[in-house]
Design brief:
about 190 residues, mainly beta, 10-stranded antiparallel beta barrel, 1 helix, globular
């Protein structure tokens, strides 16, 4: 097989895995979440791996009260990561959140279907976890051929919704809000 065909086959296989429905999360206290007697505890048994739990599920996204797409957060990599899939009117994107044990920080790699365009790929890392449970992540991107800093805050609201605020900065001292969206849980799908 030629190298380009082998690479294409790997991409096709990875795309098939990503497109599949992730398995349902294991029940708390089940063997899948309990520490393994043969080795270290599984991720879901460790508190740091649960800070994104309020985001798990399927969401309808609105901006200024108008429908703006959907977002899905699901456990991935055996409960050690979170896979985000966002679909809106202009693009589709996926984010992979994972905890990096050496830096002791959550990180995210975000890739849109416009990955070759400015800001089509970003890497962010957790910079703050607020008392109200809000998660603040920062990273850098390219907009209009200039490097910009981006800060994304995911805030659980008291009514079960989540507010996401995205801000940009050229110097990390002054921030400009560029997007505020509200996530509202989709009702569970009825089984036939």
């Amino acid at each position: 097989m030629k190298p380009t065909l082998a690479f294409a086959a790997v991409l096709l296989f990875a795309g098939t895995l990503i497109a599949q429905e992730p398995p349902s999360p294991p029940a708390p206290g089940s063997a899948a979440t309990a520490p393994s007697p043969e080795g270290p505890p599984r991720c879901r048994a460790i508190g740091v791996y649960r800070i994104f739990d309020f985001l798990l599920g399927n969401w309808n996204v609105t901006i200024d009260g108008k429908p703006a797409g959907t977002n899905r957060f699901a456990q991935a990599a055996w409960g050690c990561a979170i896979l985000e899939t966002r679909i809106d009117g202009t693009m589709r994107s996926q984010g992979f959140y994972y905890f990096h044990p050496e830096s002791k920080r959550w990180k995210q790699v975000w890739v849109s279907e416009q990955a070759l365009a400015p800001n089509g790929v970003m890497e962010l890392q957790l910079v703050d976890l607020l008392e109200d449970g809000s998660i603040v992540m920062e990273g850098t991107g390219i907009i209009a051929e200039r490097r910009v800093y981006e800060r994304s805050t995911l805030e659980p609201m008291g009514d079960g919704r989540v507010r996401q605020v995205i801000e940009t900065s050229g110097d990390r001292r002054t921030w400009r809000r560029v997007l505020e969206s509200i996530y509202e849980k989709q009702p569970p799908k009825k089984k036939p």
